[in-house]
Specification:
This protein has about 625 residues and is mainly alpha-helical. About 65% of the residues lie in helices and about 5% in strands. The chain is built from 27 helices and 6 strands. The chain has helices at about 1-30, 35-50, 70-80, 85-105, 110-125, 140-155, 160-175, 180-190, 210-230, 235-260, 265-295, 300-305, 310-315, 325-345, 345-365, 370-380, 385-400, 405-420, 430-435, 435-445, 455-470, 475-480, 500-510, 525-535, 555-565, 585-590, 610-620; strands at about 485, 495, 520-525, 570, 595-600, 600-605. The protein is globular.
Length: about 625
């Protein structure tokens, strides 16, 4: 028996090692090519400011919670302060997430099949879009939480729940989207109350706790509605975000009500699961909170996490893509296949369902080589968290199906559904990939419930995802790669862009080398320039588009620049079209800095010594 277990462990290690090796090689060879300069620059810029002794949220507007800055600062100390160093921890965390995905997949699939599922997760995550952003840490931490929760259901030790909560706490430390991960875990905890042992003296059924559960579900649904109500394309937003999250909430509430517990018994059962979870969250978040409190910036942290993001929600709305004919085919095909495998008892009906599903999937594969095929495949994947909680809720209420007893499926579906909210408010192409592996795992865990045909359905779906995702990364559809790459001409880069972009930055840097050292004002939203030129930012803004409108006022801005001794300004009008409210600021900067020259598409303006003296006198009042 021990020899058999040892052989299985060795086989698992071998398959997982091969999956990680293949995935890592394919991603590593492109990891340092291309960039999205606004995100690369902002991530490095906030770390530079932390290393300079500034406190996030108090001294500058950190777009994120701030905990990640400390980890990245240590990595900068080891690897050097470069843009390339942003990508390495994301790559390592992604590999760890794939290892967690493999461990989860082994709960419902054989060794080889779990490896295939993990490869499909790799194809639709960092391989599809490797540009750095903090959202990439969501999937590895969600995988850790799922693994820890599954270990709790297998072993029953509360320590796994603490570890699970710690993962959610770390996600919150990195970015406020970690609260969505915590919501999934709390809904799973709520459903767990139905399976906990009931005291012998309390066999009488009650609806009190069930009513509380439905009240919580309604409150969460209202929260999601308020979150997405201003998104462009309200119909698509309701379909992709409000509908699945509401279905998840009421599914968990239905499970909790199934236990028939009194209010007291229900709260005790909930505390047994949610208590250690919350303790784990507190364990992970307390060091960050103490650090901010020590620096007298706890109030600034609360504003930065809970108040200032409202500006982002007001300006960065991007709707999910609308459905078209091919998209509709891709949305329904895999579920026709699954439904046929599960419910069809007549051989001809089953064969017809399999044929229809297979035809739809292969249409998507052949259409994959253009933008329409990419969108169709993405819509099919995006439909997973829409459909799965509806199926689960239907089974739970109407059939009392055994699936409702699977805490693994409930957990994975909950993580995939709340994971869709990482796309809010900007539901653009890259944001889907941050949580796509969770959706793949949830769908395949549902397929596994049909034991007679589960393996064939999972193989078919995984092979389709690999065929659709491995041909060309989605990044190449959004940003076609150049014929060759050229290095960004800065010792603080370490990444490669198109030769035209490289030459553009080289022109700008040559001109800036002739200007005095010191702080520079850069407008509008080009934080990468602060990093690449190693120049201080005299203002608190990182993303001007996310700053309060008072940051755009001309007179306060000029006073801030004079106090900081700024003699040079760069107007990066080619980076993004400025908001109308910034037109007056641009005019004031042109008047304030009268000398100018263009370089690399940027407008560089500066003061000479006489201009600087006049500027100080004019702004003293």
């Amino acid at each position: 028996m021990q020899n058999t277990n040892r052989r299985l462990l060795l086989l698992d290690g071998l398959v997982l090692g091969c999956v990680l090796l293949v995935s890592g090689v394919f991603v590593w060879r492109e990891l340092f090519n291309s960039w999205y300069p606004w995100d690369d620059g902002a991530m490095a810029h906030v770390v530079d400011r932390l290393l300079a002794g500034q406190v996030p949220h108090r001294d500058f507007d950190d777009p994120w919670t701030g905990g990640w800055n400390f980890l990245q600062a240590e990595i900068f100390g080891i690897l050097g302060p470069t843009l390339a160093a942003l990508r390495i921890p994301i790559f390592v965390a992604w590999l760890a997430g794939l290892a967690g995905a493999y461990g989860i997949a082994r709960r419902f699939a054989s060794t080889i099949l779990a490896g295939l599922v993990t490869l499909s997760c790799a194809a639709w995550s960092l391989y599809a879009w490797h540009l750095p952003l903090l959202n990439w840490y969501y999937f590895p931490l969600a995988a850790w939480c799922a693994w820890s929760a599954i270990r709790y259901t297998e072993r029953g030790h509360w320590g796994w729940l603490v570890a699970c909560g710690a993962g959610a706490g770390l996600a919150i430390d990195i970015k406020s989207s970690g609260f969505f991960l915590l919501a999934a875990l709390l809904f799973w905890s709520l459903a767990q109350t139905a399976y906990a042992d009931r005291p012998a003296a309390r066999e009488r059924r009650s609806s009190a706790f069930g009513l509380l559960a439905f009240g919580l579900a309604a409150t969460y649904s209202l929260f999601v509605f308020m979150l997405v109500r201003r998104m462009a394309g309200p119909g698509a937003s309701a379909l992709h975000f409000l509908l699945p999250n509401s279905a998840l909430a009421f599914w968990a509430a239905s499970e909790a009500a199934r236990g028939g517990r009194s209010f007291r018994d229900g709260m005790v059962a909930l505390f047994r699961v949610a208590g250690p979870l919350v303790a784990g969250v507190a364990l992970a978040c307390t060091p960050l909170i103490v650090w901010f409190a020590f620096h007298g910036a706890l109030h600034d942290l609360l504003l930065g996490v809970f108040v200032r993001p409202s500006v982002r929600f007001a300006r960065l709305w991007g709707p999910p893509p609308p459905s078209k004919l091919l998209t509709a085919i891709m949305l329904t095909a895999p579920f026709v296949l699954i439904a046929g495998l599960r419910y069809a008892t007549v051989p001809k009906v089953r064969a017809a369902a399999v044929a229809a599903g297979a035809l739809g999937l292969f249409v998507g594969v052949f259409a994959r080589w253009d933008a329409v095929g990419v969108n169709a495949t993405l819509i099919m994947l995006r439909s997973i968290p829409i459909i799965l909680p509806l199926i689960a809720l239907w089974w739970c209420v109407g059939r009392n199906h055994e699936m409702t007893r699977s805490t693994h499926s409930l957990l994975l579906i909950a993580l995939s559904v709340t994971g869709t909210l990482v796309q809010v408010p900007s539901a653009y192409l890259p944001y889907f990939f941050y949580a796509a592996p969770l959706m793949i795992l949830a769908a395949m865990s549902l397929m596994a419930w049909q034991r007679a045909s589960a393996e064939g359905a999972i193989v078919f779906f995984a092979v389709f995802l690999l065929a659709a995702g491995a041909g060309h990364p989605a990044l190449t559809m959004a940003f076609p790669p150049p014929m060759r790459w050229a290095a960004v001409p800065s010792s603080r880069a370490g990444i490669f862009v198109s030769p035209a972009d490289s030459a553009r930055y080289a022109d700008l840097f040559r001109l800036m080398d002739t200007r005095p050292a010191g702080p520079v004002d850069i407008e509008f939203d080009a934080p990468e320039l602060y990093v690449l030129m190693n120049r201080p930012n005299p203002r608190r803004t990182v993303y001007a588009i996310l700053a309060d409108s008072t940051e755009w006022s001309a007179v306060p801005t000029l006073r801030t620049l004079d106090r900081a001794g700024v003699q040079t300004a760069i107007l990066a009008t080619t980076e993004m079209q400025p908001w109308p409210a910034m037109v007056k600021l641009f005019a004031a900067l042109r008047e304030h800095f009268p000398r100018s020259r263009s370089a690399g598409g940027y407008e560089v303006r500066w003061l000479d010594h006489a201009d600087a003296s006049l500027a100080r006198i004019s702004h003293e009042y």
